[in-house]
Specification:
This protein is mostly helical and about 80 residues long. The protein has a domain of about 50 residues. About 70% of the residues lie in helices and about 0% in strands. Helix 1 runs antiparallel to helix 2. The radius of gyration is 24 Å and the shape is flat. The two termini are about 35 Å apart.
Length: about 80
Amino acid sequence: MPVRRFWLFARNIDRITAMQDMRSLKTVSAAATNEAFEGHMESLVKEVGNVAVKDIDAVADFGELDREGLDELRMMAL
């Protein structure tokens, strides 16, 4: 690994750690009052966003298991 890249990574690790510490500090200070806590929680929920949206109507119907195709895949793996 080149020396410049190493120091770039080292600085980024410090930056990421500082960001995590700032977030922890913000969370602790927001817990002091109920109103601040609710506002902080809303901002975190917005930041996380929708991880997965489950739409029951959009679930694909795969039908029955294709045994022949499964056997072919197993043979390829050998």
